[in-house]
Amino acid sequence: MPDLLPLLGSALVLGLLGGGHCLGMCGGLMGALTLAIPPEQRSRRLHLLLAYNLGRVLSYATAGLLLGLAGVALASSPLAQGLRVVAALLLIAMGLYLAGWWSGLTRIEALGRGLWRHIQPLATRLLPVSSLPRALLLGALWGWLPCGLVYSTLLWAASQGNAAHSAALMLAFGIGTWPVLVATGLAAERIGAVLRRRGVRMAGGLLVVLFGLWTLPGPHQHWLMGH
Predict the structure, then answer these.
(1) Least C-beta-crowded within 10 Å: which of 69, 100, 169, 214?
(2) d(Cα 138, Cα 131) in Å, to the nearest integer?
(3) What is the residue extent of each domain of the chain?
(4) How many CB atoms are located within 10 Å of the residue 64 CB?
């Protein structure tokens, strides 16, 4: 468990740093969900927003568990090291994207669009949202929206070789994205203005790149841990 705590902290920070990307990917959807709340339910807006995001985070944890099981199967094979390298490279690509230096990662998001085409009609049927269980289910479906940041973090979590740890890391990552997306549903314009600042995007992107470099297997990891 002590070895897992730094990883959980890293996943949480990664979710926080990816807030700008989350706003771009899900900010419009978050606004649409807020507007879809019936007038008689507006007094419960915060509760419904929290339920949306709880469902979304639980879907991340589920994906982490499923891919983590595959990671366990690969843990004792030569492919395990390759999975970690791919995860690190995706994190570096994500950092470059967040900073606005390279947008090649958006091509990876196309991989999940086929699945989303099947899920989206189910999500549409849940609108308008009139109850907390409905909001929770809609959020759980929303969690499968194609997202390069989620895919990058998911591969990194799966490379740990422990399904429970993978699920916990994705849960921590999802919790890290909460502040931006919940606040977006309440005050989208103010939050968006801050996260669109070039300095904020570059700082967040650079930190994610450094995290990807730290994740990349090699002797540099021991040097970084020593410092």
Answers:
(1) 100
(2) 11
(3) 3-195, 197-226
(4) 30
Structural contact between residues 93 and 209, judged by C-beta atoms closer than 8 angstroms: no
C-alpha closest to that of 13 among 197, 203, 221: 203
User: 0.85 exceeded by the pTM?
Assistant: no
CB 132 within 8 A of CB 117: no
**Structural tokens at position 136:** 């929770």
Query: Number of C-alpha atoms within 13 angstroms, CB side, residue 211?
Result: 27
Alpha-carbon span 124 to 183, nearest angstrom: 23
Alpha-carbon distance 58 to 139, whole Å?
9
Dihedral angle computed from the Cα positions of residues 55, 58, 59 and 62, in that order, rounded to the nearest 10 degrees: -160
* Tokens representing residue 158 in the block: 């799966």
80: how many CB neighbours lie within 10 A of its CB? 17
Of 129, 18, 80, which is closest to residue 10 (Cα–Cα)?
18
Q: Is the dihedral of CA 154, 158, 160, 166 positive or negative?
A: positive
Give the alpha-carbon dihedral of 64, 6, 17, 114, to 10 degrees: -10
Token duo for residue 172: 């921590």
Q: What is the pLDDT of residues 42-56, one digit of tens each?
A: 677 788 888 988 999
From the list 101, 68, 108, the residue with the least C-alpha distance to 208 is 101
Q: For residue range 12-30, what is the model confidence (pLDDT) as tens digits?
A: 888 887 766 665 566 556 6
